[in-house]
Specification:
The chain is an alpha+beta fold. It folds into five domains: 2-57, Helix Hairpins (Orthogonal Bundle); 71-304, 2-Layer Sandwich (D-amino Acid Aminotransferase, Chain A, domain 1), CATH 3.30.470.30; 309-384, Beta Barrel (OB fold (Dihydrolipoamide Acetyltransferase, E2P)); 417-576, Orthogonal Bundle (DNA polymerase, domain 1), CATH 1.10.150.20; 587-654, Rossmann fold (3-Layer(aba) Sandwich), CATH 3.40.50. It is 35% helix and 20% strand. Strands 2-11-10-3-9 form a five-stranded mixed β-sheet. Strand 12 (309-321) and strand 13 form a beta hairpin. It starts with a helix and ends with a helix.
Amino acid sequence: MKERILKLTKMLNEANYQYYVLDDPKMPDFEYDRLLRELENLEGEYPQYVQPDTPTQRVGGQALSKFEKVTHTVPLMSLQDVFSLEELDDFLSKILESYPEAEFTVEPKIDGLSVALEYENGLFVRGATRGDGVVGEDVTENLKTIPSIPMVIENAPARLIVRGEVYMPKKSFEKLNERQEREGKALFANPRNAAAGSLRQLDPKIAAQRGLDILIFNVQYAEGVSFDSHSESLQYLKNLKFKVIDWALLHQIDKINDEVLRINENREKLTCDIDGAVIKVNRLSLRERLGNTAKFPRWAAAYKYPPEIKPTVVEDIVVQVGRTGVLTPKAVVKPVRLAGTTVTNATLHNQDFISERDIRIGDTVLIRKAGEIIPEILEVDISKRPTDAVPYKLPSACPVCGAPTQKDEDGAFLRCTGAACPAQISRIIEHFVSRDAMDVEGLGGAIVDSLIEKGLLKTPADIYELTLDDVKSLWQSGETAAKKLLDAIEKSKQQDLSKLIFALGIRQVGAKTGKVLAKHFGNLDNLMAATEEDLTQIPDVGGITASFIYDWFRQEQSQAIIEKLRKNGVNFESKVAVTDTRFAGMTFVLTGALTKFTREEATEKIELFGGKASGSVSKKTTYVVVGENAGSKERKARELNIPILSEDEFLNMLA
């Protein structure tokens, strides 16, 4: 079995190299997945033969509590910036006057996060962020999740340190923001921010999901290996199977200028964002003679591409409804060439943005594309405004489903309130079937999307009308998986009312509020009949939440969903009856790593006995239950003289 594990590891790593580094895959995805599963099974059976470069470990290891500091063996210096061809020519001329034979490499400047990778005897041992250039942070576990970073290098020196730029490819960025929107989370502004946030996740499993990549651009240290030039060192890195940045080797100033401009013209074709070009003296001995200033090397410069600003005309304003229901206005503009691409749309963010700039249909505006995926309007040229242009207001009804729109609490965004809005239906159903809601195991996002595409799901209640014929074609295993899914759907009909209330997706009604409402009203019909005044009398339900609940149940879409749920036998009754009120009026805080029960189990018991579980310690807290490594909440409890319980003491109270 050892030989088979070695062979599979080698085959799969070579396939990864062809796919992620050479961008020339040879092995079909199906074959790769089959071999990877075989390797996973063999490694599970024979763990003593697992190789240090196994491709099965790219999914991320254990979460860290913090990042350790790393002092770089060779400082990761920054470069002096130049912002015009005149400044670049001046930089080049000074060098060429003294060293007319000098050659220069020109490389794209990747807009990402600089890191150093360390290898010992060919094995990847550590990776660190640039930090301040002298001290960075150890992000080894997150870097291991990047498929293009080799874990083992053949024919490597005893010690090797290379420098590269971690970035998020444009496609990965789009997928990440789609997922963020689907989950109702804030979107990332640009790929660099997303890459930085991903690389600094304490849980490597999160980093592994983000689709990060890297380009190597320098040898920092190579024990026993010497180079005459930078281009020679880059070729050396390519031979070691690193994913190396593209470069051009040039001598004349005009040719260098042309290459800098060519990179800018072609930036939209690249898989990653760039914000400039890097020009370096190629000969390493000449670099030593030129030396460094206190901050920068004298032998390199970074040409920063200026953000282009151009005029265009707003031909229309259209409103899109996102997966979370947010209405996003977009300006349709007269096509204009900007930063290497033809722009036809510009983001307008929200009503406040439109009103502050007084943007109207027909206006001549200045737009730019700097660090953002979608161009943005900077200002309006009022002198060119048509006489019939009128102020723009976002609609009071959803342009997709016609449901009323509602302002966020801070007033920045409008949301569609439709419970079955087609623009949001995928997210609505995914929430409805999620673990803390109706908990339909097996009904994941991909399957939900497939059923929506087939026209089988238009509201969350439609899952209860799915048939075997509807779902069996979704799996290769056919009826077995389909029957399992239908069983899970049938089982979910018996969930407690609290889970159903949370599943409905009413704004500001989380799992905790769902329990409070279920306990207070006893059944869904009572909740539906409640007035706003009735709702505000309930602890933990404020005026805004009460209005959201009241309005939701009075919408036509919501009522249709409720009736379909009723018709299909979904439970509308609360199963939680508080017969033992030993914890009535008490508030518990759970902190630290609990070993005898999960937080969910403990919370359920507290609420069953009439108590309340809170996430923060205050003077109103009755007890703090502490597990291992409790931290700040335990310290605050001691400061406030709040009784602290061990897990065993808490269990005794439950007994």
